[in-house]
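I'll show a record.
***
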Amino acid sequence: MLASQVSTWLDRRRIHFGWIVVSVVFLTMLVSSAALGMPGALLRPLSVEFHWSTDQISSALAVRFVLYGLMGPFAAVLIDRFGVKRIVCAALVLIGAGMLMATRISALWHLVALWGVMLGVGSGMTALVLGTVVSTRWFDKRRGLVVGLLTASSATGQLIFLPLEAWLIQSYGWRTAVYPVFVACIAVAGLAFVFLRDRPEDLGIEAYGASPASGSTAATPAPARRLTMMEPFRVLRQASSNRNFWLLFGTFFVCGLSTNGLIQTHFISLCGDFGLAPVPAASVLAMMGAFDFVGTITSGYLSDRFDNRKLLFWYYGLRGLSLFWLPHSNFTLYGLSLFAMFYGLDWVATVPPTVKLVSSSFGKENAGMVFGWVFAGHQLGAAVAAYGAGLSRTFLLTYSPALYAAGAACLVAAGIVFAIRRTGRTPAPTVAAAAATS
């Protein structure tokens, strides 16, 4: 097998095969993020061609956020049942097929089925739980770095693809812009089929940084607990009795409300209302992605050293103020660059401290699935904003009420994070092991 040969070749050079696995998963999450972000660049072209209102198109895009979030708690079960390679390949083929078939749409329900259901389910199978499983199975050390890199891949996907997509839409039409994402999905699926393996033991090696004392050896893999489809519901029932769960769920709902659903989906259309062409608007989003890549990794570093509630206070507070300021930026290069910097630095920076608080509140065993449910709240918030902002644009002819509402919600979230009880002074590892023990 090629993977075994590559593992042996790398081992001779003291490079662990786990970094190859991480690279493929990074590309998987990058392409998935690019597919999720692309429909935001197509609001105007679809509206012009099919005469659909913004809220009609947004309803289809909201479906993908809901399914993307609700798939999170069950992704660990699917990976446990079918393996990492099969799930990643199936997800990428599903995403790629949904993108490609959308070039033949002629009715709104086609958009809902392809970019709502297929894209939502496919991307949900490659969400943060995949990163959790891979980092825990393949790494005994450097897990925090691995999780930070995989989380930041969503920013990189936006950074690479959006300006290209906007240029293709402007120059050749929106259908042409779909093809690079489709090709990327199929190419990464091929890499996943060749290189991904469930565990280091499949190649006869140990996890990165494993020692005999840790019990992670190639000869004696750790026993796995078989998960069932009822496990996420059991974890939800237990977590829902804890006040911290609802506070974390609510604040992460606001996180999704003020990021994916609002800015990622509607920013290019918003800029168009102020006379800014799609390519420079997409470039501003790419700039946000660059700042977010730095901000997310930095946030992971800070979350190990400071009170995570204080970090969330600053993240939500600064995000809320930036959203209040955006309608008054005049959409100049200077104004949008300033917004991209402050807003971009904490786009996904809320993830590491939220994961830390989930881990400290619910323990390592259940924190993975608990975070999956908290992440579902994030995507429900994104769905509300995607549809709500579309309604605002359709009936009020402006996005400003949606921006002000999201900004106010962020300030509320910044205030209530201090109601989260601190249940331990030593945070658990960055990502929980519940999903990864499968």
Notes: DSSP finds 17 helices and no strands in the chain.
